Task: inverse folding
C-alpha cells in the first residue's frame, strides 16, 4: 500500500511542474503579437519533445497577445506525434526529422491531396560536455570524438586527443564516455554526425538508440549532464542548454573546413545556413551537411519541424506559425538554448507560412 | 566720499547698492539652482537606481527560492527534464542578478547600517547556496527536502527580511532626497523673491532719482536692467515650479507605483511557488496558509488594487488565485491528478498560463511606470541644465547696465 502511495506520488511529480514547469516562471515584458494580427479559435499539435520548450513559450506568448486564441501542444515524441497527425489528430505535428516514404504518402492522403509542408522552426545545437582536470579549452575532430565515445581512446592523454590539442597538458585520467540510455533525437543526431564525418573511426551507423559498446548510460539530457558533472574524466553529448545551465565545459568540434568550431549562435547559424533544401515551393525539408566545409560552422546541430497540410489550414494556426517564424518569435526562444534561424531560412519559412492555404 | 549727501555720492550709493544686490542675487541663485540640479541628479543617478535595485533584489531572492523548489521537486524525473533545465536556467539568471544587485548596493551604501545589512545578506546567501547545493545533490531519498527546508528557512527568515531592510532604507533615502530638493527649491524661490524685489526697488528708485535730478524721463539702460530682473524673477519662478511639479507628479504617479509593483511582483512570485509547495509538501496546511497570507494583501486594497495603472495585473492575479483555490479544492478532495493538471497546464484557466499572463501584465505595468518616470526625470534635468546660464548672466548684465546708466551722469560732475 505504501509502495503504491509512493508510486502515485511519483506519478504526480512526473506531471507536476511539467512541460511548462509550473507557474513560477519569469518572462520579459515582450508579447507574442503576430505581425499579421491575431486569429481566434483553437488548434492543437503533438510530437517532438526536443521542441517542447520553444512551443510552450510561443503558445504562452501568443495566447497572452491574442485573447481569443487557444493553442495546445502535447510532447509525445516525434514518432507518436507524426502517427497521430497522419491519423487525423490535431492540426500539426512536431518532428525531429522530415517525413519519408510511406509516411509522406499517408500525409498527402491525410491532407486531402494538398501538399505536406515541413517548416523548420526550431534549431538546437548539441554540445560535447566534458569534465577533466586542468583542461578548459578542448578541441576534438569527429574521429577523436568517435574514438572517445566508443571506448577506443581510453586515456585523456591518448595521442589522438593530444594531436587535436597541441600544447595542452592532458592528464592520464581514464576517458569515461556517457551516453543516453533512452531513444532520443539527440543520439540520432550525434550518431549520424559521426557516421558522416568520423570515417572508419565510427562503424556503428546512425540511429536514435546508442549503438557503441561500453560507457555509462544515463537517462535524458539531465541524466547525462549529471553524470558528466560528477565524474572525473567524463565526456558526453547533451543539448546545448543543459551544458550551459550546468556550467559544463564544452569542446570545440572539428568541421569540414579544418577548423575547431566553438558552440556559438553564429556558428550554429552558419551550419544551418549551409543546409540544402531539396523540396519545392513551401516545403522546407533541410538536408544538413554534417561535413560542411563552411568556415566557422558548428557541425553538430539538430533542426526540428512543424509539419502541416498546405491547404485548409486554420487561420489561427497560420497566425501562430507566422509569429513563431518571425524575428521576435525566434528571439523569444533563444533564452532556452535554441538558436534563432538564419535570416534567409527564417524568411523562407515566413513566406511558406504566408503561402499556406 | 561715497556717503556724502551730494548728488554724485548719492548716485554712487544707488548704483553700488543695485550692483551689490545683483551680485547677491547672482551668487545665491547660482548656488541654489546648482544645488537643485545636483539634487535632481542624485535622485536620478543614485536614489532611484538604489531603490529600484533594492526592489529587484527582493524580487530576485523570492524567485530564486521558487526555482530551487522546482528543481528539488523535479529531481530524478526525466519527464520533468524540461522544467528542471528551465528552473536551473532561471536560477542561474536570478543568482547573477542578486550578485550584481548586492555589489551595487554595497558599492553605493554609506558606511553604517545599510552596508552592514548588505554584507550580512552576502554572508547569508553563501549559507543559502550551501543548503541549496546539498538539496540538489542529495536526491529525494537522501534528504533533499530536508536540505531544501533549511535553505528556504534561511531565505525567508534571514535573507528576505534583510532585503526588506535594504529596500525600506533605499525608499526612505529616496524620500529624504526628494524632501531635501523640495526644501532647496523653496529656499531658491524665497531668495529670488527677496533679493529680486530688493533689486527691483533699487533700480526703480535709481530711475526716479535720475529723472528728478537730471530731468531725464527714462534712463534706457536702467529700464532694460529693470525689465531683465523682472523677467529673471518670473522665469525663475516658472522653471522652479515646473520642475517641482513635474518631479513630484512623476514620483506620485510613476515612481511610487513602480516600486509598489516591484514589491507586489516579488510577493506574487513567492505566493505562486507556494501552490507547488502545497501540492508536494507533507505539510500542506503551512503552504495553504502561507499562500493566503501572501496573496491576500495583493488584492485587498493595500497591494495591486491600490496601485494606479495595475488594473489588468490585479485582474490577472485574481484569475491565478481562482486557479490556486481550484487546485487546493481538487487536492483536498483527493483528485490529485486533476489538481496537478490544473497546476501545470498552459490552457486558459490553468495555473502555468494564468501566472504567465499575470506576470506579463505586471511587468508591462511596471515598465510603463518606470519609463514615464525616466522621461520626467530627463525633462527636468534638461530644463535645469538650460537654466544654468540665466541666474549668472542676468545679474551680471544688470551690473553692466547699471554702470552704463550712471556713468554719463557721474561724468557731468568731473
Result:
Amino acid at each position: 500500500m505504501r509502495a503504491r502511495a509512493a508510486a502515485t506520488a511519483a506519478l504526480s511529480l512526473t506531471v507536476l511542474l511539467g512541460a511548462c514547469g509550473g507557474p513560477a516562471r519569469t518572462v520579459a515584458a515582450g508579447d507574442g503579437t503576430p505581425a499579421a494580427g491575431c486569429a481566434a479559435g483553437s488548434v492543437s499539435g503533438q510530437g517532438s519533445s526536443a521542441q517542447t520548450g520553444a512551443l510552450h513559450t510561443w503558445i504562452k506568448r501568443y495566447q497572452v497577445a491574442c485573447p481569443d486564441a487557444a493553442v495546445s501542444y502535447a510532447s509525445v515524441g516525434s514518432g507518436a506525434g507524426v502517427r497521430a497527425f497522419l491519423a487525423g489528430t490535431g492540426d500539426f505535428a512536431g518532428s525531429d526529422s522530415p517525413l519519408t516514404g510511406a509516411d509522406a504518402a499517408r500525409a498527402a492522403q491525410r491532407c486531402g491531396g494538398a501538399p505536406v509542408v515541413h517548416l523548420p522552426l526550431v534549431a538546437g545545437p548539441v554540445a560535447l560536455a566534458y569534465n577533466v582536470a586542468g583542461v578548459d579549452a578542448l578541441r576534438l575532430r569527429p574521429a577523436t570524438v568517435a574514438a572517445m565515445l566508443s571506448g577506443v581512446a581510453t586515456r585523456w592523454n591518448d595521442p589522438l586527443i593530444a594531436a587535436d590539442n597541441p600544447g595542452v597538458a592532458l592528464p592520464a585520467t581514464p576517458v569515461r564516455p556517457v551516453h543516453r540510455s533512452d531513444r532520443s533525437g539527440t543520439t540520432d543526431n550525434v550518431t549520424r554526425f559521426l557516421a558522416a564525418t568520423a570515417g572508419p573511426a565510427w562503424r556503428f551507423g546512425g540511429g536514435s538508440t546508442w549503438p557503441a559498446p561500453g560507457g555509462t548510460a544515463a537517462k535524458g539530457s539531465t541524466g547525462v549532464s549529471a553524470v558528466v558533472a560528477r565524474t572525473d574524466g567524463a565526456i558526453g553529448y547533451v543539448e546545448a542548454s543543459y551544458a550551459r545551465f550546468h556550467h559544463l565545459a564544452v569542446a570545440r568540434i572539428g568541421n569540414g573546413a579544418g577548423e575547431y568550431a566553438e558552440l556559438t549562435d553564429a556558428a550554429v547559424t552558419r551550419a544551418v545556413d549551409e543546409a540544402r533544401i531539396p523540396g519545392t515551393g513551401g516545403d522546407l525539408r533541410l538536408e544538413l551537411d554534417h561535413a560542411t566545409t563552411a568556415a566557422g560552422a558548428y557541425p553538430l546541430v539538430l533542426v526540428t519541424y512543424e509539419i502541416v497540410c498546405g491547404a485548409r489550414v486554420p487561420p489561427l494556426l497560420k497566425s501562430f506559425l507566422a509569429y513563431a517564424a518571425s524575428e521576435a518569435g525566434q528571439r523569444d526562444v533563444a533564452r532556452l538554448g535554441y538558436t534563432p534561424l538564419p535570416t534567409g531560412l527564417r524568411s523562407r519559412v515566413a513566406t511558406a507560412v504566408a503561402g499556406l492555404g | 566720499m561715497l556717503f556724502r549727501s551730494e548728488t554724485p555720492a548719492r548716485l554712487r550709493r544707488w548704483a553700488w547698492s543695485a550692483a551689490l544686490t545683483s551680485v547677491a542675487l547672482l551668487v545665491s541663485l547660482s548656488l541654489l539652482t546648482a544645488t537643485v540640479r545636483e539634487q535632481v541628479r542624485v535622485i536620478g543617478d543614485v536614489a532611484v537606481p538604489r531603490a529600484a535595485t533594492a526592489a529587484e533584489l527582493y524580487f530576485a531572492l523570492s524567485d530564486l527560492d521558487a526555482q530551487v523548489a522546482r528543481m528539488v521537486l523535479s529531481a530524478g524525473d526525466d519527464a520533468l527534464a524540461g522544467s528542471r533545465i528551465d528552473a536551473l536556467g532561471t536560477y542561474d539568471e536570478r543568482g547573477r542578478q542578486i550578485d550584481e544587485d548586492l555589489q551595487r548596493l554595497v558599492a553605493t551604501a554609506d558606511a553604517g547600517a545599510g552596508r552592514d545589512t548588505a554584507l550580512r545578506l552576502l554572508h547569508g546567501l553563501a549559507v543559502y547556496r550551501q543548503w541549496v547545493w546539498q538539496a540538489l545533490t542529495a536526491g529525494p531519498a537522501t534528504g533533499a527536502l530536508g536540505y531544501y527546508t533549511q535553505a528556504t528557512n534561511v531565505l525567508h527568515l534571514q535573507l528576505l527580511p534583510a532585503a526588506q531592510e535594504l529596500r525600506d532604507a533605499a525608499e526612505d533615502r529616496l524620500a529624504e532626497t526628494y524632501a531635501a530638493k523640495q526644501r532647496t527649491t523653496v529656499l531658491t524661490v524665497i531668495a529670488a523673491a527677496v533679493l529680486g524685489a530688493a533689486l527691483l526697488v533699487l533700480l526703480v528708485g535709481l530711475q526716479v532719482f535720475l529723472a528728478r535730478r537730471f530731468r531725464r524721463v527714462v534712463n534706457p539702460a536702467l529700464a532694460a536692467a529693470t525689465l531683465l530682473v523682472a523677467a529673471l524673477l518670473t522665469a525663475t519662478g516658472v522653471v522652479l515650479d515646473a520642475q517641482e511639479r513635474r518631479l513630484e507628479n512623476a514620483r506620485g504617479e510613476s515612481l511610487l507605483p513602480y516600486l509598489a509593483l516591484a514589491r507586489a511582483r516579488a510577493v506574487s512570485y513567492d505566493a505562486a511557488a507556494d501552490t507547488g509547495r502545497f501540492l508536494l509538501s507533507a505539510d500542506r496546511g503551512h503552504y495553504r496558509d502561507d499562500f493566503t497570507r501572501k496573496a491576500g494583501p495583493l488584492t485587498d486594497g493595500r497591494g495591486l488594487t491600490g496601485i494606479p495603472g495595475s488594473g489588468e495585473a490585479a485582474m490577472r492575479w485574481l484569475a491565478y488565485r481562482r486557479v490556486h483555490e481550484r487546485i487546493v479544492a481538487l487536492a483536498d478532495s483527493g483528485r490529485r491528478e486533476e489538481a496537478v493538471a490544473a497546476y501545470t497546464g498552459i490552457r486558459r484557466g490553468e495555473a502555468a498560463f494564468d501566472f504567465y499572463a499575470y506576470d506579463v501584465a505586471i511587468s508591462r505595468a511596471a515598465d510603463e511606470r518606470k519609463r514615464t518616470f525616466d522621461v520626467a526625470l530627463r525633462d527636468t534635468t534638461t530644463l535645469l541644465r538650460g537654466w544654468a546660464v540665466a541666474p549668472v548672466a542676468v545679474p551680471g548684465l544688470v551690473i553692466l547696465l547699471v554702470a552704463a546708466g550712471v556713468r554719463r551722469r557721474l561724468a557731468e560732475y568731473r
About this structure: Confidence is low (pLDDT under 50) at residues 1-30 of chain A. Residues 2-15 of chain A form the longest helix (14 residues). The radius of gyration of chain A is 21 Å.
